[in-house]
Each structure stands twice: as structure tokens, then as C-alpha cells.
């Protein structure tokens, strides 16, 4: 049976974990001596004891009661393990190797040739730390002692303002990763109808179940970098709003009354809303979210002039999403790509050229921006595209004067365009620099 959070019990918790400067002067609280302890703590001659007690209320007891009195991030389970050191993370994904016809009598060149793996990498950096302050005044303490559960009420009020604010912001920032990726055209998307009746509910359920099934197989269309990644039943989730969840529960149940296969076989998460109301559901692999905590620090400061104590709750976290794992938006917008174009560029040997590509669609259309690049005309084995990126590396020994770049929409491979990178021929071609 849980111990009631009375003033007596809470004060004894403080004493249990206190040092001798506090516990040596404050006895174990009971009904007979509680008023005497109040007088001792509030006495102006015992500032050190009062300071310790005030800090313990927000610090030590808060951590013990955080689960029961604070808002918790409902999508916190998507976070990865903490990253305690450093400011950036390199995420690496190795694509499948490509097969070729077996040759029983290979040449020496084939045997000793270096076969480049299709390795992709992305860098994630820590977001700016956020800090949440709360003050506990001398009057707060005096008022708390008037009621048997007054200290508990004080703790609840202060910790909910502090911890719940941090948890709420963490939730909003994680959810904004979906909206940001959608706004930038970094998600694969499929069009669905608004659920208004049993028929549209059935259509939506078929769409989401179909996508979940497809995500279990490698498909470069379903991620930003074009990786050969896939999900499993343990890693695939879908996210919906309360309105969509309610409509699915009612309308799908109606159509599935005599069916056993209407449920969606994936982990469901309900969020309050998406920033873009056209997003009706988000289906993703849990590895899409690259949210990692670095530290949570509690600090205090006394203000004897104002008779209050300030507590500062500081969080440092990384908020980013992976370009390598499946993430699909179900939207009421039309989805399509009409044109792609990459700007011509000039370069020198040894340069890294960042290709600038524009992808367009029709009016009121969601446009997936994922494209693939293919180059031709190069003479150096060191001239190539960095996998999963828009960066073209020019070898130091490149002798070609122009390289043709073919840009293809990954959403609609029939939409493509060509551009030219012109290479200046001055300078030595005897060495190749190693870029780190």
C-alpha cells in the first residue's frame, strides 16, 4: 500500500536523505512534534535549515514523484539511447551489395580490383539546450504548512510547472520533425480520402495496412537517402490524431463486423494534431526519429533579499530525423512530380560540387523532393557521387572537360533531366587529395 503524501511523511523523506547538518537538528516528524518542526524551519535564525528544506522539496522529492505528478511525453518511447558526450553523431548506413554474373575464369584486374561499398552517412547535431526556471517563496512554505497535504500540493504545483513544461516541449519538438519533413518534401506520400463514412474508412484501412506490409521489404522510395532499408513488425509504427483514431474505431468496426483482419498490425501512437491538417496518418520505422538526450541538470540559487529560491531545470537533446529509414505520410493532398531540373555548374579537379536541384508539381500538390543522380563522361575512378547525397566529387586526376549529370525523380522515375558540370583543366593531375 502506498504511503500517503502527508506533510509528516514528506518531511521524513527529506530527513532520510539529508546530511547531518539537517538531520542532526530536525527530528523524525510525527503528530506530536510537527508544529515544533515547522517553527524550527521557519525561524529566521535557521536560514541554512530552511534553505536545505526548500531545495529538497523541488529537487529530491520532485525526482521521486515525477512519474505521478507530471505530464509525460506520449511519444517519448521513440527516443534513442542517450548520447552523453560530444555535439554531433555520424549515422552510417551500408546499402545492399549489387550482384553480378559469376565468372569462373576472372582476370587479374577483376580479382584485385577494389570494389567500393555503397556507404551512406548523415550527421546529426545537438539542438540548443532549453532551461525551465521555477521559484519557491518563503510565503509558499508558510502556506504549505497550514494543511496536512499542503507540502504535496506545493510540490505538485511547482514540479508540474517545471517538468511538465519540459516534457511538453520535447513532445512538440519531436512531433514537429514529421511536419518539417513533410513541409520540405522529404517524405514519401500517398493520397487518401477524408474518412467520412464506412467506405472511406475501409479505403483508408486498406491503404495503411498495405503500406505497413510494403515497408517490410527494401524500397529506396520510402526514405530520403534512397537506402535499401526496411522495417519489421517490431519497428513499424503509425501515428494518427484523436479524430482519425475515433473515426477508424467506429467506421472500420462497422465494416469489419464479420471480419477478423480489420485491425492494423503495427504500433499505434495518438498525437493531438499535425501542423499540416492534410496529414491524416504517418507510418514510419522507429529509427526515423533520431532524438537523443544528452543531459538533464537541476541547479538552484538563493535570493535572500526576495526570500525565495530559484530552481533551474536544463535539458540538452538532439532533435533530428534519419534519412535512411522508411517514413510515409498519408495525406489528402494530391501527390505528384511534374519536372526536375539541376543547375549547371563549374568546378576544378579535386572539388566537391553541391548540385542544386528543383523539383516541381502541380498546384495544391505535395511534391516529394527525393531524387537520384547518375553521372557519365568522367575519366577518373575517383569522380563519383557521394551515395545518398547531392555532392559530386571530382577526382584530382580527372581529364574530362564536362560531366553529364542525369537527375531522376525517385517518386516518378519517368521524370528526369540532364545538366552539365564543366571542369577547368588547369593544375596538376598527378595526385588525388584525401578528404576527411
Write the layout of secondary structure elements.
Layout: H1 7-16, H2 20-23, H3 34-42, H4 47-58, H5 60-69, E1 88-94, H6 108-112, E2 119-125, E3 130-137, H7 138-144, H8 150-183, E4 188-191, H9 198-214, E5 236-240, H10 242-255, E6 267-270, E7 279-285, E8 289-303, E9 308-321, E10 327-331, E11 334-335, E12 339-342, E13 345-348, E14 352-354, E15 357-360, E16 365-366, E17 371-376, E18 384-385, E19 391-393, E20 402-409, E21 416-424
Parallel strand pairs: 4-10, 5-6, 11-16, 13-21
Antiparallel strand pairs: 1-2, 3-9, 5-7, 7-10, 8-9, 12-15, 14-19, 17-20, 18-19, 20-21
Helix pairs in contact: 4-5, 5-8, 7-8, 9-10
Descriptive report:
The protein is an alpha+beta fold and 436 residues long. It contains 10 helices and 21 strands. The strands form 7 sheets. The chain has a 5-stranded mixed sheet. β5 (236-240), α10 (242-255) and β6 (267-270) form a beta-alpha-beta unit. α5 (60-69) crosses α8 and α7 packs across α8 (150-183). The radius of gyration is 30 Å and the shape is elongated. The N and C termini lie far apart (60 Å).
| Fraction of residues in β-strands | 25-35%
Relative helix content? 25-40%
Largest sheet: 5 strands, mixed
For the termini, the CA-CA separation is: 60 Å
Oligomer: single chain
Fill in the keyword field for this structure.
disordered C terminus, 4-stranded mixed sheet, 21 strands, alpha+beta, 436 residues
Short précis:
The protein is about 30% helix and about 30% strand.
Amino acid at each position: 500500500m502506498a504511503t500517503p503524501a502527508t506533510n509528516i511523511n514528506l518531511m521524513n523523506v527529506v530527513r532520510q536523505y539529508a546530511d547531518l547538518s539537517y538531520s542532526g537538528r530536525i527530528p523524525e516528524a510525527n503528530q506530536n512534534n510537527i508544529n515544533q518542526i515547522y517553527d524550527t524551519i521557519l525561524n529566521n535564525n535557521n536560514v541554512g535549515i530552511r534553505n536545505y528544506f526548500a531545495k529538497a522539496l523541488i529537487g529530491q522529492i520532485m525526482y521521486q514523484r515525477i512519474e505521478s505528478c507530471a505530464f509525460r511525453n506520449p511519444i517519448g518511447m521513440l527516443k534513442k539511447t542517450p548520447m552523453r558526450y560530444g555535439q554531433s553523431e555520424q549515422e552510417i548506413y551500408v546499402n545492399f551489395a549489387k550482384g553480378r554474373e559469376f565468372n569462373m575464369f576472372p582476370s587479374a584486374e577483376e580479382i584485385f580490383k577494389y570494389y567500393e561499398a555503397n556507404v551512406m552517412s548523415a550527421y546529426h547535431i545537438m539542438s540548443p539546450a532549453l532551461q525551465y526556471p521555477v521559484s519557491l517563496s518563503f510565503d509558499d512554505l508558510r502556506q504549505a504548512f497550514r494543511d496536512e497535504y499542503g507540502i504535496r500540493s506545493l510540490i505538485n504545483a511547482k514540479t508540474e510547472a517545471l517538468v511538465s513544461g519540459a516534457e511538453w516541449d520535447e513532445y512538440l519538438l519531436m512531433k514537429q520533425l514529421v511536419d518539417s519533413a513533410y513541409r520540405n518534401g522529404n517524405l514519401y506520400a500517398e493520397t487518401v480520402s477524408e474518412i467520412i463514412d464506412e467506405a472511406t474508412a475501409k479505403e483508408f484501412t486498406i491503404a495503411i495496412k498495405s503500406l505497413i506490409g510494403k515497408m517490410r521489404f527494401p524500397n529506396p522510395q520510402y526514405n530520403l537517402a534512397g537506402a535499401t532499408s526496411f522495417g519489421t513488425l517490431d519497428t513499424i509504427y503509425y501515428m494518427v490524431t484523436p479524430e482519425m483514431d475515433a473515426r477508424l474505431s467506429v467506421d472500420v468496426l462497422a465494416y469489419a463486423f464479420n471480419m477478423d483482419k480489420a485491425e492494423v498490425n503495427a504500433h499505434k501512437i495518438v498525437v493531438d494534431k499535425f501542423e499540416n491538417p492534410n496529414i491524416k496518418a504517418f507510418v514510419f520505422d522507429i529509427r526515423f526519429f533520431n532524438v537523443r538526450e544528452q543531459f538533464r541538470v537541476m541547479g538552484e540559487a538563493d535570493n535572500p533579499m526576495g526570500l525565495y529560491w530559484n530552481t533551474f531545470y536544463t535539458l540538452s537533446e538532439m532533435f533530428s530525423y534519419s534519412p535512411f529509414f522508411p517514413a510515409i505520410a498519408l495525406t489528402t493532398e494530391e501527390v505528384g512530380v511534374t519536372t526536375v531540373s539541376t543547375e549547371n555548374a563549374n568546378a576544378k579537379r579535386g572539388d566537391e560540387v553541391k548540385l542544386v536541384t528543383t523539383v516541381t508539381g502541380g498546384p495544391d500538390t505535395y511534391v516529394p523532393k527525393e531524387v537520384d543522380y547518375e553521372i557519365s563522361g568522367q575519366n577518373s575512378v575517383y569522380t563519383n557521387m557521394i551515395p545518398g547525397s547531392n555532392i559530386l566529387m571530382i577526382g584530382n586526376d580527372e581529364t574530362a572537360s564536362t560531366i553529364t549529370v542525369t537527375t531522376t525523380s525517385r517518386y516518378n522515375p519517368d521524370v528526369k533531366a540532364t545538366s552539365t558540370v564543366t571542369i577547368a583543366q588547369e593544375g596538376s593531375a598527378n595526385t588525388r587529395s584525401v578528404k576527411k
